[in-house]
Design brief:
single chain; mainly alpha; two-stranded antiparallel sheet; about 75% helix; globular
């Protein structure tokens, strides 16, 4: 039975994360870039001002909503989304890309991220535009909503939109227990045992207790924790990586030369037929880029839609920044740490180190920090992976709520917390493979929705640019539903965004 499941999973996984899936993700990013006139390139100063600049200058961005208001702030939505995306993929995933695809994989990871910015942007724009208010006054949005009400709004597509929304929710639900829970805590437990001799069951019990307190408290408590945890863990990791960067700053030209040379290498570092090296670099760069920032999977839009923002494009810009921070900043620093510390032959792309995954990154940090290097990486994985668990707990809860209703969410959250213990103590090779597959399956219905609604995203974007950047006096496009459009439009005209 297990062998049959494994074979079926391998077949599905090879399609989802093979040439078809990677090409679909890239094509979606390219299409959304074209229809939105290269927004991530042409308006760099604007989206940086409205994201990174706003965090520093605009208190409304970070201010908490009133206790009775179920929405979360724009900054909290960003941090919760980053909590789910900045995970083991930023450490283990980057190391794997270099090992299997060579230094050139990093170039293609950047390419996927650059176009993925607009996929994530479009998801968030649609998420805000098609979100609805729940019985408790909280905003509910995600791919399931724009599939049902957006794609399903086309003539004759209501039934298909409903089916795709249900499929997306089911895939998300299963993935939340795998890639969003057990695989993450398994990495935590394994690294804590290796670095600090902490038994896996002790780690599991501790994680269950902490997670219970946070997750059972609802989204506002999750967001309250992630807005503190994400900046802390990101800054600490970035500082450590920057120490390595400046220690090996003379290697910068050599590292970049290896990345660009490897990106178009005809042969891989181990030889092989002409074209094989280029194929491996593109495949692993694209795959690790997609895994790292999750643009196109439709996951982070579920928390972005809970923001107190009024303008869909404003939340879309947070999606651009999310991909930028995750891949262009954090993943790139990990790549430089590995490539600049003598663990890879930059001339040939061959691996010198025998380590893999987090061990490779730990070895890179050890060249500067000594014996503390691997411990530093173990702590980083603890923070990164646990924050991913918190973010995915909301994604799974949103999918559960869509399928089974608000009143039964406690069942899901309780099960999610319990599985943390099993994930910490069990061997999970099959569970990891299955979770990768279902995580990838989320992409298919989501991208059907995003691509089919691309004219609407372009229209909303143009409306925003005309009003905010070109000063035209026109009615804002804020919601697909007249009652929300009227309410939100009045607030936008009064100065709220």
């Amino acid at each position: 039975m297990i062998e049959t499941i494994t074979k079926i999973n391998d077949s599905v996984n090879s399609v989802v994360w093979g040439t078809f899936g990677i090409a679909l993700l890239f094509a979606a990013g390219l299409v959304m870039t074209i229809v939105n006139k290269g927004f991530q390139f042409t308006h760099i100063p604007h989206w940086l001002k409205k994201t990174l600049g706003a965090i520093v200058r605009d208190k409304k961005i970070t201010a908490h909503t009133a206790k009775e208001n179920k929405a979360i702030s724009q900054f909290q939505s960003l941090c919760t989304a980053l909590a789910a995306t900045i995970g083991t993929g930023n450490i283990v995933g980057v190391a794997t890309a270099i090992i299997l695809g060579g230094p050139g994989a990093i170039f293609w990871m950047w390419v996927m991220a650059i176009f993925g910015m607009m996929t994530n942007y479009s998801e968030n724009v649609l998420g805000i535009y098609f979100r609805r208010k729940g019985a408790n006054g909280d905003w509910r949005g995600g791919a399931m909503y724009y599939l049902k009400d957006g794609f399903g709004g086309y003539k004759g597509m209501k039934w298909l939109g409903t089916i795709l929304a249900i499929l997306f929710s089911l895939f998300c639900l299963v993935a939340s227990f795998g890639i969003g829970n057990m695989s993450q805590v398994n990495s935590i437990a394994g690294n804590m045992e290796a670095a600090f001799n902490v038994p896996t069951w002790v780690c599991g019990v501790a994680l269950v207790i902490i997670a219970s307190i946070i997750i059972l408290g609802g989204l506002k408590r999750v967001a309250s924790v992630t807005e503190k945890l994400v900046p802390f863990m990101a800054i600490i990791y970035v500082i450590g990586a920057l120490v390595i960067f400046f220690t090996h700053i003379t290697s910068v030209p050599e590292v970049f030369a290896a990345i660009f040379k490897g990106a178009f290498a005809a042969k891989s570092a181990t030889g092989g037929v002409v074209g094989y090296g280029l194929q491996k670099a593109i495949t692993w760069g694209f795959k690790r880029g997609a895994f790292s920032n999750e643009a196109g999977l439709g996951s982070s839009v579920m928390v972005h839609s809970s923001s107190n923002v009024k303008e869909p494009v404003r939340q879309g810009m947070w999606g651009i920044f999310e991909v930028f921070a995750d891949t262009i900043v954090v993943c790139s620093l990990t790549a430089f740490a590995v490539l600049s510390t003598g663990l890879v032959d930059l001339e040939t792309g061959k691996m010198i180190s025998q380590n893999a995954g987090s061990g490779l990154v730990g070895e890179a940090f050890a060249t500067v920090f000594g014996g503390f290097g691997p411990k530093f990486i173990a702590i980083a994985i603890l923070l990164f992976a646990f924050s991913t668990v918190l973010g995915w707990s909301h994604y799974g809860a949103t999918a559960w709520q869509y399928l089974f209703g608000e009143k039964t969410q406690l069942i899901y959250k309780t099960a999610f917390v319990v599985m943390i213990f099993f994930g910490s103590t069990m061997s999970l090779s099959l569970a990891w493979d299955l979770s990768d597959t279902f995580n990838g399956l989320m992409m298919i219905p989501n991208l059907i929705g995003v691509l089919s609604l691309s004219p609407l995203v372009a229209k909303i974007t143009k409306n925003y640019v005309d009003r905010k950047l070109d000063g035209k006096d026109i009615e804002p496009m804020l919601s697909a539903f007249p009652e929300y459009q009227k309410e939100e439009s009045a607030e936008v005209k009064a100065g709220a965004e």
